[in-house]
Amino acid sequence: QTAGPDIRNPSSYRPTNFVFNDNTPIHEIRELRGNARHPLPFAQSIFAKAGFRWREEVAASTNRNRRYTFTGLNSGQLPTDPTIETFGDHKAGLAVPRWNANALARGRTPVDPALWTEDRYFAEQSKYTGTRRVTETVKAAYGMLQGRIHQTGFIAGVRAEQTDDDGWGWVKRPSTPAKPTSTTAQQLADPVGAAANDYASSRREISGSYTKSFPSVHLTQDLTSNLKARLSWSNGFGRPPLSNSFPSETPNDTAQTLTISNPALKPRLAENWDAALEYYFEPVGSFTLGWFHKTIRDYTVSGILSGTVGTGTDNGYNGEYAGYTILTSQNLGTAYAQGWEISYAQQFTFLPGWLKGLGGGANFTLLDTHGDFGSTTNRAKGEVPGFIPFTGNANLSWRHRGLSARVIWNRTGEYINAFTASGSGRNQYTRRRTIVNASVAYQVRPTLTFSVDVGNVFNTPQIFYRGIADQISEYRIPGITVTFGVSGRF
C-alpha cells in the first residue's frame, strides 16, 4: 500500500447491506410410465417394443427475504475473525481484516440491532417477487424394433414428446401519472401498502408448448470373433430451464422496449453420428477407436425482437406498455462438434503371483468445434467457451484378496471459458492441468468395507489467464481432499 486509509485497519471499511435469504423451494415430480415388449414371428430374434410416459414437474418458491442497512460509523464496530486466512494474505503479507457472518447475526437478525436498520419494504416486496410457480407436463410415447440377423444387431425407433409449460408470478407494474408507483417516503411510512400498490395488481400467467420427435438407429456388426463395429444415428435434446417459464418483465422507458421471458422456448437439439471399432483380446482386455459428429441447433439467444405491445386493457399487460417493442429469448444458431475417442482397458491376469490383480486402462478424447452458436459470426476451435479440445485419463488398479487400490491420472487441455472477440485480450482461458487421485479399500468381510480416497494428491492449482498466458487473472488452490468411508450390507 502506498496511499489512502490503512487496508489492515477494520475502521477503513464500511458495509452497505446485510441480506438474509429465507426461501422455501418446492420441487415435485409425478410420473407414470408403461412398456410392452413382444417377439415377432420371424426365425431371427426380433422384438417390437412400445411405451408411454407422463411426467409432471412443479417448481415453486415462497420468499421471506429481509435486508438491513448498516447505520454505524464503520466496520471497526463489528467483530473481526482472525482465524480466516487467504492465499493473498500469505503471499503479500497484507493481513486484510475478515468478518464472519455468524458473528454478526443470529436467526436472520443482527446481533447488534443498534448498528442496522431493516428495509421493511424490501421484505414486503420479496413476498411478491419471490412467490411464483411453474408446471411442466410432458406426454411422450415411443416405438422400436430390436433384434439380430446373423452377425448384425440393430435397434431402431422413434420417441415423440409434447411439452406444456405454465407459470405464474408477480412483476412490478409500470409507474403512470394516473397511478404512480410508491416513493421512498411511502415505502418507509407504509411498506405493506407500498408493496401492494407496486405489485398486487400485476400477477402474470404465461404458458408455452412444443412437440418434438427423436428418431434413432443403432447397428452392430461382428466382423470377427474379436472385432466388432458400431454405427449409430440418434437425436437428442436439452430442455430449457424451468426458470425460463417464470413471468419476467423488464421495461426500458427510454428505449421503449419490454424484455420478457419466453415459456415457449424449444429445447436445444442435437443430431449425432457415432462410429466405433472395438477389439477384444485375452485375457480380459479391449481397445476401442471411436469417431463422433454432433450437429447442435436451437441455441437460446436473448434480446431478440418479438413484436410490439398492443393497445387496450387486454394487451396482456393490464393496458400498460402500449407500443413498446418486445424483446425475448428465442432459438437460433447451429454448431458442430466432432472428434475422436481412444480407449484401452486390460486386466493383467497373466502376471505371476500377487501381480495377477493388476489392471489398467486409458482413454483420450480429441474435440473440434465450430459454428455460429446463435451469434452473427462463426467461431472456430479455440473460440467456443466450455469445449475442451483434449482430455485424457489413465488408471492403474490392484486387487489382492480383500485389499484394493487405484491411482487415476487426469489431463485436461487448455481451453477458452470466456470469449469476447477473436484475438481479444479479454478472452479468458483455463490452463491445462494434470491431477492425480488415489484410493485404497479393504474388505473386512463380504458385507463390510473400509476405504480412503485422496483427491488431487499433489494439490495442483487451477490457473486462468486473459489474452496471453502471462496475464494470470485467477489462481485457485483447491487443496487436497481426503475422504474416509465405511460401507456395508445388512
Structure, explained:
Helix content is 7%, strand content 55%. The protein is built from five helices and 26 strands. The strands form four sheets. It has a 17-stranded mixed beta sheet that branches. A hairpin with a 3-residue loop joins strand 14 and strand 15. Helix 3 (120-129) runs parallel beside helix 5 (191-199). The chain is globular, with a radius of gyration of 30 Å. The model has no long low-confidence stretch (mean pLDDT 92).
The DSSP helix count reads 5
Unreliable spans are none
Oligomer: single chain
Q: What is the makeup of the main sheet?
A: 17 strands, mixed
- The assigned structural class equals mainly beta
Shape: globular
Mean pLDDT: 92
Radius of gyration: 30 Å
Number of strands: 26
**Helical percentage:** under 10%
In terms of DSSP E residues, the strand content is over 45%
Cα separation of the termini: 62 Å
Record keyword descriptors for this entry.
490 residues
At a glance:
With 490 residues, the protein is mainly β. The chain has helices spanning 87-92, 101-104, 120-129, 184-189, 191-199; strands at 17-20, 23-39, 45-63, 66-70, 105-106, 109-110, 116-118, 132-149, 152-170, 203-222, 227-238, 249-252, 257-260, 268-281, 285-308, 325-347, 358-371, 390-400, 403-412, 415-418, 428-430, 433-445, 448-455, 462-466, 472-476, 481-488. Helix 3 runs parallel beside helix 5 (191-199).
